[in-house]
């Protein structure tokens, strides 16, 4: 019996200069397109200095738009990203 190989499906790229951030209370996980960095997924702590480092890394990776998902407060991250000239697409969810 032969094994069926799943067909590779890929979604179209809408914005090649976009990154995604999963925002957590202690750390944030950031993903950029694989051609922008040797390590395209990085983790940054949630402290102000680390957020500054994350914004600098995103700028170095030529990112202009950031999509964020969070179950908490985005204020510090949004403020720093806006200072760096990044466009934000944030989705906040309520946790009960």
What do you see in this structure?
It is built from 2 helices and 5 strands. β4, α2 and β5 form a beta-alpha-beta unit. α1 crosses α2. It has a single domain, classed as ATPase, nucleotide binding domain (Nucleotidyltransferase, domain 5). By secondary structure, the protein is α/β, with parallel strands linked by helices. A 5-stranded mixed β-sheet has the order 3-2-1-4-5, covered by helices on one side. It comes from Providencia burhodogranariea DSM 19968. This is Transposase.
Tell me briefly what this model is.
By secondary structure, the chain is α/β, with parallel strands linked by helices.
Number of domains: 1
The first-level CATH class is given as Alpha Beta
Q: Portion of residues in helices?
A: 10-25%
**Shape assignment:** globular
How would you state the average pLDDT, rounded?
Answer: 82
Named at the architecture level, the CATH assignment is 2-Layer Sandwich
Radius of gyration: 16 Å
Alpha-beta content class: alpha/beta
**CATH topological fold name:** Nucleotidyltransferase, domain 5
Q: Beta-strand percentage?
A: 25-35%
CATH superfamily: ATPase, nucleotide binding domain
What is the number of strand segments? Answer: 5
Q: Which regions have little confidence, pLDDT < 50, spanning 5+ residues?
A: none
Largest sheet data = 5 strands, mixed
Helix-strand string? EEEHEHE
If strands are numbered along the chain, what order do they take across the biggest sheet?
3-2-1-4-5
| Tally of contiguous helical segments | 2
